[in-house]
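A.,

Following up on our hallway conversation. Structure tokens first:
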């Protein structure tokens, strides 16, 4: 499917548009299925979206949240993606605890915690060994270096295709991350990108030619729908893409 790119006037409009798309997808999916599986992005951009979702009356018992990546810290740590989402959203709505599938980070062994999350996905989705789960929605961001989830430029994680979760590496710091095949199995991916500091990455991600190992978000080509929601500061990159 051809990616949809929308440039919104500012971050608050971007967040409102993202919420509109997320809620519409939840309602559409639950009109035909019993549960909705959603993967949350970390970082700072999605926080106001999570805060807005906390004000909505949604069928929380039918919504399951997962994370596409996690810093290797306890959930109480200020850097925790699961901690941010809990404080902004999940602690404020009656979502059953069993619907919240945070990545484990307590084994003092990132590879072991990655395997534990792999097993959680296998059990939840009733996957055959080696199968890739299909999430209804995956939210992603990009760093100014073009990473997405915790798939950083030039790292081993970019080449891992035989499992769903692997250990990412940011400047020597371990992270847990989905692998590219899981992202590309999604029914819908929404990228949330704000700020002029993302322009260089966007130019390379949208250019006809660029190395995905240098700009990893280029690997994201889901079987389902791909939507880029940019604010004007980031979206200015689109007017000067090298063809
Ligand atoms: C993380 C994220 C990461 C994030 C980008 C953008 O754990 O940091 O999952 O991929 O989406 O780094 O972060 P900002 O939204 O803070 O710019």
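Then the amino acids I'd put at each of the 243 positions:
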């Amino acid at each position: 499917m051809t990616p949809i790119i929308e440039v919104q006037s500012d971050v608050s409009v971007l967040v409102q548009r993202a919420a509109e798309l997320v809620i519409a997808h939840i309602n559409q999916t639950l009109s035909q299925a019993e549960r909705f599986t959603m993967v949350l992005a970390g970082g700072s951009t999605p926080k106001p979206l999570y805060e807005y979702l906390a004000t909505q009356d949604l069928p929380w018992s039918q919504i399951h949240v997962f994370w596409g990546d996690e810093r290797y810290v306890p959930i109480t740590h200020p850097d925790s993606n699961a901690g941010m989402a809990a404080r902004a959203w999940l602690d404020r709505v009656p979502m059953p605890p069993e619907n919240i599938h945070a990545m484990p980070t307590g084994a003092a062994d990132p590879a072991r915690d990655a395997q534990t999350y792999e097993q959680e996905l296998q059990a939840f989705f009733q996957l055959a060994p080696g199968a890739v789960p299909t999430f209804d929605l995956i939210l992603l961001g990009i760093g100014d270096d073009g990473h997405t989830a915790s798939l950083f430029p030039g790292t081993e994680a970019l080449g891992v295709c035989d499992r769903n979760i692997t250990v990412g590496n940011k400047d020597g710091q371990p992270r847990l991350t989905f692998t590219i095949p899981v992202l590309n199995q999604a029914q819908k991916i929404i990228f949330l990108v704000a700020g002029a500091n993302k322009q260089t990455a966007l130019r390379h991600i949208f250019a006809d030619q660029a190395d995905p190992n240098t700009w990893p978000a280029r690997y994201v080509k889901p079987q389902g729908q791909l939507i880029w929601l940019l604010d004007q500061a980031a979206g200015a990159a689109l007017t000067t893409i090298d063809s």
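The mean pLDDT is 97. Curious whether your intuition agrees with the design.

B.
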